[in-house]
Amino acid sequence: MRKRAEKPPGETAGFKTLAAALRAGRLPLAAYIDRLEARCGEREPALGALLPEPGRFDRLRREARALLVRYPRPASRPPLFGVAVAVKDVFRVEDWPTRAGSQLPAELFTGPEADCVTRLKQAGALVLGKTVSTEFAYFAPGATRNPHHLEHTPGGSSSGSAAAVGAGLCPLALGTQTIGSTIRPAAYCGVVGFKPSYGRISAAGLIPLAPSLDHVGVLAAEVAVAEAAAALLCRDWRAPALLRRRRPRLGVPEGPYLAHASAGGLASFRATCERLAAAGFAVEPVAALPDFDEIVARNILVVAAEAAAVHAPWFGRYRELYHPRSAELIERGQQVGRAALVRALAGREELRRELETLMDAHRLDAWLSPSAPGPAPHGLESTGDPVMNVPWTHAGLPALGLPSAMSPEGLPLGLQVVGRYGGDEALLAAGRVLERTLRPAPGSAAPGAGAPTPASAQSPPR
Hints:
Shape: globular
Largest sheet: 10 strands, mixed
Strand content: 5-15%
Number of helices: 13
């Protein structure tokens, strides 16, 4: 019989209240870290979201004391003062080894700390730890489990980051997306995922998979957390006060793309669209993506070719240390000619223009689609299918993943909301409105908001 972990609690008072309490000292940093330690002790042994770190909470307490010395006055404290964040193990973090989920020597990946990590630290965040990544942010899975059902995948490649937020270990974690590595695990783990417009967050200090498609993303307990992180990390961020406050007009991309959702996943998506329409949103079906299979093929060609180029300095020497799935990708990419890659790369801008032309014609603010074909698959051998994320990542458009429903098995399902290129602020503003509409009534079950896991709901042996 499948053993189930009950849905984990989030910060019940909300992120803004938590951050304000830490800055003001109403929640002492020492007490907050005690809470984090208790939560990690309760969930992490079964979950496996964090890479092992001896003395993790001794380090955090030292760093917390240093923060208090640096910012003795509450009025001077930065926005994320003391807030715990987790970092996917494809980002370099000062004084931490980086392995990118692989068996290759960490010395190969040394270099300056990732820009996004430095920015979070400068904003006062405390790094809870590094999170498990699939190997080189591709498909070879790690040992992390889904916080809602421990025998199901948490998704990938940002598996540890999504599971850590979903289990209530931290309210914010860094991830990446080259195909579907932020939005899909966010959906599987019942949390918010945000992938900005391509290039809006610096990828400096990231171990790349395919630089023309790699996006830095965040996994978050709620839209407010993703918005706070985006304001710190995105280039040229505009204050939300400058944006118009209205319900967004939403388009559903009808055609071959939606045929890739499972029957249950598509039924849930249609029901979510009906809920939004009943709440007063304009939801319009739009024929789109007629060449979807070509887009998928073009995307994987770019990933393979660029992965081969990234790994050229290491692959010949360390071939036997690569997982077979990663090795197959690199060897496939070695066969891609320059002309084919140039044509595939040109397709990114063509797709972006096509999608935004449709948005103009139908006066759309955003697209709606499923975050994944369905709920998280059973087993840890696969991280699931990123097919529902392909066109939006390939076009470089900003995407926001919102928890939208629960499957009959008690697994989260997600709604993917996609905006215009460069319109990240507007997308997150729309996300706040959609989040309020999709939030279940008080007392009903919802992703990321439930009771702590009882001692009887432990994972099977690993």
